[in-house]
Fold:
Amino acid sequence: MRELQKLKWVAIREEKKPGKGRPFKIYRLDKNLNSIIQQLEQQKTLESRMMMENVQRLKSLKLTNNK
Structure:
């Protein structure tokens, strides 16, 4: 939940129970679901692209070391 809060995807408010006890937290999405999904897709696409670049770099190192 902290990570979602850092990304400003959720809003949290505390509400006091009647009587004694700890207040409970109420969570609600702060952004619409499509926006969150789009952001996740972009992030994963970037991670995948970076991983493939690293693989290509390793392949080129292997080729230069074999000669």
